[in-house]
Amino acid sequence: MPRLAARLPALSFAFAAFLFLAAPGYAAAGESDPLRIGVLAPLSGPFASGGSAFLQAVTLAVTRANAEGGVLGRTVELVAADTQGRVEIARSEALRLLSRENAFALIGAYLSEETVGAIDAASSARAVLIVPVAATAEITDRVVREYGRYRYVFRVGYSIDQWAGMMAAFLSGRKIRRYAFVGAAIRWNRELAGALAKALAPREILPVYEAFYSPRSPVFEPVVLAAVGKNPDILVLGDPGASSVEFVKKLRETGAPLPILSVGGTLGDARVAATLPLSPPLYVQAAAWKGSSPEATGYAELFAARYGYAPVGYSDTLPYDAASILFAAIRTAGKADSDAVVTALEAGVFPGVAGRYRFDRSHQATWGTPDLSGVVVQWEKDGSRIVFPAR
Predict the structure, then answer these.
(1) Do 160-286 and 2-158+295-357 have the same topology in CATH?
(2) pTM of the full structure
(3) pLDDT digits 0-9 by tens, 128-137
(4) Mean pLDDT of 288-304
(5) What's the CATH number for 2-158+295-357?
(6) Using an 8 Å Cβ cutoff, are 378 and 387 in contact?
(7) Mean pLDDT, to the nearest integer, of 278-283?
(8) How far apart are CA 183 and CA 244, in angstroms?
(9) What's the CATH fold of domain 160-286?
(10) Which residues are within 8 A (CB) of 350 and not within 5 positions of it... i.e. 6 or more apart?
(11) 322 touches 353 (CB < 8 A)
(12) At what angle do helices 48-67 and 294-307 cross, to 10 degrees?
């Protein structure tokens, strides 16, 4: 287990020390056959904040599983890899975790590009890959097209169409007629912009501006000015990373009374929201939020007690559910066998922080149902308020 801290240079020393001290291998001295689970996340680069929260969430799920006796009596041990937000690194690190680190299954990655790079490695090794965040349709499309090869891939997070459907329902309820879509130039955002326009067209809600900026060297001013000049009713911000904070500040400097709907991520952090102007409204989409259900409230309190800040309901919630579902499926299967776990995942219903998870024939969690729906919150002076769905 000491090797884990050494492989995570992007983490703070305090957090690395926590992983070292709380690692299951140390808590379960004398157990020589741990169940190793690989985690793929961007722990450096522009999406490092989301990646670090991703790893924290999975670590929390592992700590809980081990406190409950492990999985089938085996202690769970994490082996983590920094994908850096790059396809080729995600692919090579997936191979390393499976071949050299002997991981039984993988959880990850974060960006769609990374995950597409990792699924071939997992499928070739016949290892289960649980996708918590990446939303591109290609991930689940492969399961349908080549089931025999990609049957090991399951997505806990939303698909692009599910995400667009939720956002469309929210925007329709706010009586929006014109919107701008701006975000980081990553695959997921480009696909989301198209899916959102398609979902909103029957409601006669139209995009009046669309732009994407570099996530590694963003230039905001011309995009901000062009978006404001189109006079939309709201701006949809597709950027889960730290760049979203600077974008919001630049937009507010113009004085335009333009509400913002963030896809989630960094802008879901209460510490960040406290540094931003909250009028006009700043809305944030999340899979779950404190107050949305007893399970979500319990998780938020557990996460805050362990890490000292509240979860954003996205990159630090979906990975927790992904790990919990994986452990539940292994228990249902009765053995750590990939094919048996796939069968359990296909047939089962799994309770999580965000709701009750079922998987369709493409191995996509069925978001947009009464059991699994997501929320939108509005930041206010003294905290946050759930504004969608109506309560």
Answers:
(1) yes
(2) 0.87
(3) 999 999 999 9
(4) 96
(5) 3.40.50.2300
(6) yes
(7) 96
(8) 8
(9) Rossmann fold (3.40.50)
(10) 324, 325, 328, 329, 356, 357, 358
(11) no
(12) 100
